[in-house]
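Board notes (copied after class):
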Amino acid sequence: MSWPIVGIFLYLMMSLLTFAFYGWDKRAAKKQQRRIPESRLHWLAFLGGWPGALFGQKYFRHKTIKTRFRVVFWLTIGANILLLVMGSFFAEMGFAQGMSLLQSWCEIALGH
């Protein structure tokens, strides 16, 4: 199986899991039961479940108002995408060549 297929599968599985957690937390909120910690929802999003989290927020109308939660949520999406791009870059280039190229780009950006 190729790496892109594995990646898509992992994102799909994490998204389904995260969507389920959002539904579970919404149900617990309505019944005034024990809730899922926000940090756990953020970790699930960071680990690849953010598409499911976005869908869960819209579908369950959950976690859409609290500003602090939303800011951290979008930061987890940005961090996840950044790590995905970096991982793809190093997988394609190889670690040594990727580091060399990254160093060259940094030197150009810093004017050295």
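Comment from the instructor: The mean pLDDT is 92. The chain is about 85% helix and 0% strand.
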